[in-house]
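agent> fetching stored inputs for the iron/sulfur cluster docking request
agent> found them:
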Amino acid sequence: MAEQSTARSQSRRERRRSRTSTPFIVLDRSRCEACWSCVDACPRGALGKMQVIWHKHAVVADAERCTGCRRCLDVCAPGALSSADG
Ligand code: SF4
Ligand code: SF4
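agent> prediction call returned; pasting tokens
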């Protein structure tokens, strides 16, 4: 039972991480101003929108689609996106 709950919380953590990063970029949701420029700029549809009450920010919709082209980094004025390699 304890193992099941540990596995569940691990998978929740992994899901959260996969919604905020790809192998190439990292999203800091707290700095996101929900302008959607990155979503529009991504040629691969890797980014998406979280739009519910109290939660409005970009998300990584499909990390595997990210090719690391960095277009999203170039258009994010508040600096909510950064390169995964620093
Ligand atoms: S690096 Fe390129 S492919 Fe990856 S999320 Fe940003 S714009 Fe999309
Ligand atoms: S460009 Fe930056 S501020 Fe705008 S939605 Fe994307 S992450 Fe948020």
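agent> quick read of the result: The chain has three helices and four strands.
agent> awaiting further instructions
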